[in-house]
Amino acid sequence: MRHGKKFNHLGRKTAHRKAMLSNMACSLIEHKRITTTVAKAKELRKFVEPLVNRSKEDTTHSRRVCFSYLGNKNAVTELFREVGPKVSTREGGFTRIIRTGNRLGDNADMCLIELVDFNEIYGNEEKKKTRRSRRGGAKKAAPATVAPAVEDAVVVEETAAEEAPAAEAAPAAEEAPAAEEAPAAEEAPAAEEAPAADEDEKKED
Fold first, then answer.
1. Which residues have CB under 8 Å from 72's CB, separation 6+?
2. What are the DSSP calls for 67-82, one per residue?
3. Domain boundary among 118, 153, 172
4. For labelling alongside 150, which of 19, 20, 156, 165 has CA 20 to 30 A away?
5. Strand, coil or helix: 159
6. Domain that holds residue 164
7. Could you read off the pLDDT of 104-118 as tens digits, one per residue?
């Protein structure tokens, strides 16, 4: 009976599965990232992370234990010379699985498995702080040599626009009193003429 045996056999016999995981672990240590199926990547993670954890302590015993699993001197040397010192401060979680979609032929769920501390592709660039403005959102600023001239032109246009309404308002203010005085001047003679006409009529009577 196989009660409690919940690991994935990956459709292989024991020797084939161990050899495949050993080869995949060597490739991951040497190349720092490999592409495989999600099922294999999950089993590889359980296989390789204890070896990476053991590489923090560079002793003969640790090297021999890792060699018994990997069976490749170059991979063991790379593991203890490069990977071990870089992961020395990390407590666990040495690998990362990133799903990449399905394979075209058999629609298998594919992924990228990599060593976390050797990531040089993404996540390391600093985010640029952007500021939204109403004037020129996506447009790039003009070169430094041209910018002062443009600013001066804008200032000149603004001052001219401010002076123009003031110049228009001044004549209007001057014309308004004249307009008010004119009717008063016209009304005064009319008022004077009216009493004179009344006096002529009284004389005739």
1. 22, 26
2. HHHH--HHHHHHIIII
3. 118
4. 165
5. helix
6. 144-205
7. 999 999 999 999 989
